[in-house]
Amino acid sequence: MSEAMIQVEVAYATPAAQKIIALRVAAGTSVQACIERSGITQHFPEIDLNEQKVGIWSKACKLDAEPRDGDRIEIYRPLIADPKAVRKRRAEKAKAEGKADKVTGGRPNPRRAKADEESPS
Questions:
Q1: Superfamily of 5-75 according to CATH
Q2: Which DSSP category does 67 fall into?
Q3: Mean per-residue pLDDT of the chain
Q4: Domain residue extents for the chain
């Protein structure tokens, strides 16, 4: 009796190129084994599974997870900037330029600004 086979895809992308490799593997094959069998590291030698995160359909998983039939295994590149730090810098810049309320951080309320000008300090 032969083993059940499943169809999976292994995907990786850089700003300049992307590659999706479809392959059939035995059911129960780990994510790491699927990546190795796909040969994607021949196209992108910079892939280091010890450092980079992987996922199935945009949901992070471990290398020993078992994909199901039709799953896409994705290899993620490391972030070059912390999203929280970028958002914080953008908010501070908006406050400095008067595009954001200095107290709430939201859009400036023109009625509040007018009331502040009229009230004696």
A1: Beta-grasp domain (3.10.20.30)
A2: P
A3: 84
A4: 5-75, 83-118
Contact 61, 68 (CB under 8 A): no
Nearest in space to 104 (alpha carbons), one of 119, 114, 94, 117: 94
| Alpha-carbon separation of residue 23 from 8, 42, 49 (angstroms) | 6, 15, 19
* pLDDT tens digits for range 69-81: 999 999 998 877 7
Q: How far apart are CA 30 and CA 10, in angstroms?
A: 12
Helix (H), strand (E) at residue 12: strand 5-13
Over 60: is that where the pLDDT of 1 sits? no
Among 75, 60, 73, CA closest to 30: 73
> How many residues comprise the chain?
121
Provide the pLDDT for residue 119.
57
